[in-house]
Amino acid sequence: MTPEVTIIIPLYNKENYILETLQSVSNQTFKNWLCIIIDDGSTDDSFQKANNFIKNDSRFILIRRPDHKVKGASSCRNIGIQLAKSTYIQFLDADDIISEEKIEDQIKLLQNENTFSIAICSWGRFGNEKKFYDNLSSYSDFKLPEDFLISLISSKGYFPIHSYLIHREIIELTGHWNECLKLNDDGEFILRVIANSYNIKFSVKGIAWYRWATDNNLSSFCSKNNVEKAILSWQLIEAQLKIKFEERVDEFIDWNKEQLYKNVKSSYPKLLKKHYFFFIKSIKKDNNLLIFRIINKLEMYKR
User: Domain named Glycosyltransferase 2-like: which ranges (predicted)?
Assistant: First the structure.
C-alpha cells in the first residue's frame, strides 16, 4: 500500500535528540506513513541510534546522503522529496517533535479541500524551558493565503516548518528546497509554497514543538556568509511575493525586512552599505529617528 504521508527528516549530529523525534513519529495516530531519514554525514552516534530505533518498523527508511549531493539539510530534504510517492509531505527536523494527532487531524482537514490547500497547526518551543503559543491571530482558517501572511506579523512572524502538512503537487509546482541558502532556507521554501497555495486550514488538535537553541542550530547569524544568505533569501522571497500578490502583502514584507535590518545592523553592519537599496526604507526610518533624537537634545539644551 502506498503511504499517504511521507515524513522527511534530515539528520546531522543530533544524537541527543533524534530518538525523541522518531518516537513522536512512531506515536502518530495516523498509521499510513513512510518516514525517510537522510543522514548528512553525522560524526556522532546519530546514525547508529536512529538505525537501532527503526530496525523493527519497516515504515522507517534510513539512508546516507550520496557523496555527489550537496551537503546540507535542504539537499537532504530534496532527496526525500525525490523518493516520496505519497500524497502529502511532512517535513520534520531531527530535534523537533509533533503531537500524536497532528498528521491525522490535518489530513482530515485537507481530504475534501483543493489540492493546493495546506494545513497548519499550533506550535510551541521546548528545550531548557517549554512555552506553548496559544491564541495567536494566525490560528485560524484563511480563504486567502495573503491574509495568512498579514496575520503572521502579530503571530511571531512565522510557523516552524513541521507545523505544515503539504500536498506533494504544490511542491512539484513551486520547486524544491534552495540548496544554496544556509539561513532561512525554510522561510524561503515555505513562503513559495504559501504563495502558490489555494487556502489555509488550521488544525486545532495538532501541535508542532520546535526545539530552541540546540548545539548546531543555524537560526542565529553566526557568520557573515550566513547573513548574506539570509539577505538573499529575503530578496528571493520579496520577488516571489511581489509577483504573486503585488502590493497586498507589502506590510508583511516590510515588517520582515525591518527585523532582518535590525539583525544585520547588530551583527554585520557593513553589509547594510552593500545592500543599501534593499534596506533603504529601514535605513531612512533609522536616520529620521536619529535626526529626531538630535533635535530633541538640542531643544533640551536651549531650555
Answer: 6-143
Task: Give the 3-state secondary structure of 91-157.
Answer: ECCCCCEECCCHHHHHHHHHCCCCCCCEEEEEEEEECCCCEEECCCCCCCCECCHHHHHHHHCCCCC
The dihedral built from the CA positions of residue 159, 215, 65 and 224, taken in this order, carries a sign that is positive
Q: Do 65 and 40 touch, CB atoms closer than 8 A?
A: yes
| The model's pTM | 0.91
**For residue 213, how many other CB atoms are within 10 A of its CB?**
10
The rounded distance, in Å, linking the Cα atoms of 64 and 247 is 43
Helix, strand, coil shares of the chain, percent, nearest 5, are: 45, 15, 35
Per-residue pLDDT at 45 exceeds 50: yes
Residue 277 Cα to chain centre, angstroms: 26
Q: 16: which 3 cell numbers?
A: 541527543
pLDDT digits (tens, 9 = 90+) for 244-272: 999 999 999 999 999 999 999 999 999 99
Q: In what order do the strands lie in the sheet with 131-133?
A: 97-98, 200-211, 118-126, 131-133
With both helix axes pointing from N to C terminus, report the angle between 250-267 and 280-302 in degrees, rounded to the nearest 10: 70
User: Is 39 in contact with 62 (CB distance < 8 Å)?
Assistant: yes
